[in-house]
Design a protein that fits this description.
Layout lengths: L1 E5 L6 H9 L16 E10 L15 E3 L2 E10 L14 H7 L5 E7 L18 H21 L2 H10 L5 H8 L6 H11 L10 H15 L2 E6 L6 H11 L3 E3 L2 H12 L22 H17 L4 H12 L2 E7 L17 E4 L4 H8 L1 H5 L1 E6 L4 E3 L10 E6 L2
Parallel strand pairs: 1-4, 1-5, 5-6, 6-7, 8-12
Antiparallel strand pairs: 2-4, 3-4, 8-9, 10-11, 10-12
Length: 396
């Protein structure tokens, strides 16, 4: 699974990315600091099953810290998007191309209103971030519409003459964006365009593109620099977003993680507070900075960075965490590791589909599965539930 970090230049996208992944990237207060897309690994949290089974896990693909399982997700930080990027302005072509494989998007917005549409610094509060929310949605939709419109008249005429559905025509053109037939069907139900695709106006095509984006690239809004905005502004922006919108302080999250790495504080990403184990180790400047961090995260019950990642995974993409094991009695793999792996799968995934995800041979030789929590044998059509511990039984 890949989550794209998007937005106009100079709003804190790279800071968000760095805070989420602790990767080293260039961060500066001017447009187009990010030229090539940065890739990194972040984590979403789950309650480790070892707590329920009175054992101790030995993680392989997902670390465990104090009973919290940290399941990896891939993040992509792309170049900033400016108005008319779909026509190639700025780094628009590269930006949009980088987003092809993203499953969901986190749109980082400067909630303080201190950057204009092109990403240039302006006095705080002089730019309305609602404009940023609207323009980015439109840019992506215009990009999708542009792909659809290439050769559309001829293809639509042929489809109409042959009495064929327009859905395969759309899906074929957008396969490279990760658009599925179900995304297209859902979008067309929402829009209800004219039955004859030859009658689709540019406005109808744009509506279809917007709807496809909502299903194929679901997006939430990170109201970054929230500590510099008042509550009324944050509420207005959240209402305008029309989707999940969370107050976020990427700089604070990055500072907290760096302080934790330096062992100045005890902090688990996503927690609403932190501990200072030995205040005597802090110099006056560090104490002042940590007091300010404590004040900021108390206001929002956290920095919002981890909340954005988990909202993207668990709400936008409807993912759940499941734990495959080979030995249902010991909860181990063939090397004796207890609860070694944690997998993110979409709600509705079956036991057999999980088998294929673990290994192709397991899927092809699937016989049955065992729900370790209930001790019940289940078939290939068993729909997985969140935090399931599953043993796959296959032909050897």
């Amino acid at each position: 699974m890949q989550i794209g970090i998007v937005g106009k230049p100079n709003v804190g996208k790279s800071t968000f990315f760095c805070a989420a992944t602790m990767a080293t990237v260039e961060i500066a207060s001017y447009p187009f600091t990010t030229i090539k897309a940065n890739r990194g690994v972040a984590f979403v949290r789950g309650r480790c099953p070892h707590l329920d089974f009175n054992t101790q896990c030995v993680p392989r693909n997902a670390a465990c810290e104090g009973g919290t399982r940290l399941v990896p997700v891939e993040l992509l930080d792309v170049a900033g998007l400016v108005p008319d990027a779909w026509q190639g302005r700025g780094l628009g072509n590269q930006f949009l191309d980088d987003l092809r494989q993203a499953d969901a998007l986190i749109h980082v917005v400067d909630a303080s209103g201190s950057t204009d549409l092109d990403g240039n610094a302006v006095p705080p509060g002089t730019h309305d971030p609602v404009e940023d929310i609207r323009f980015l949605e439109r840019e992506i939709a215009m990009w999708i519409r542009g792909i659809l419109e290439k050769g559309w008249d001829r293809a639509a005429r042929q489809a109409h003459l042959e009495g064929k559905s327009v859905e395969p025509l759309i899906q074929e053109r957008l396969t490279g964006l990760g658009v599925t037939p179900s995304h297209v069907s859902a979008a067309l139900r929402d829009v209800s365009p004219p039955a004859n695709p030859q009658d689709w106006s540019p406005e109808v095509m744009l509506e279809v593109a917007h709807a496809i984006r909502r299903y194929a690239k679901p997006m939430l809004v990170a109201l970054n620099k929230a500590d510099l905005a008042d509550d009324a502004t944050l509420k207005r922006l959240a209402e305008a977003a029309g989707t999940i919108a969370l107050p976020t302080m990427a700089e604070s999250e990055l500072a907290l993680k760096r302080a934790a790495k330096a062992k100045l504080i005890d902090y688990l990403p996503g927690d609403p507070s932190f501990e200072v184990p030995d205040p005597s180790k802090l110099n006056p400047n560090q104490k002042k900075a940590i007091d300010k961090l404590s004040e900021n995260i108390a206001r929002f019950h956290g920095t919002g960075v981890q909340a954005c990642l988990e909202a993207a995974a668990f709400q936008l993409l409807d993912l759940i965490i499941v734990y495959p094991v080979e030995d249902e009695t010991k909860l181990t793999d063939h090397e004796g590791r207890v609860l070694p792996d944690a997998f993110l799968v979409r709600k509705g995934t079956t036991a057999k589909e999980l088998a294929y995800k673990v290994h192709t041979d397991l899927g092809e030789n699937f016989i049955r599965a065992i729900n370790v929590r209930t001790h019940r044998t289940v078939g290939n059509d068993y729909v997985l539930q969140g935090d399931d511990v599953i043993t796959i039984v296959s032909r050897k």
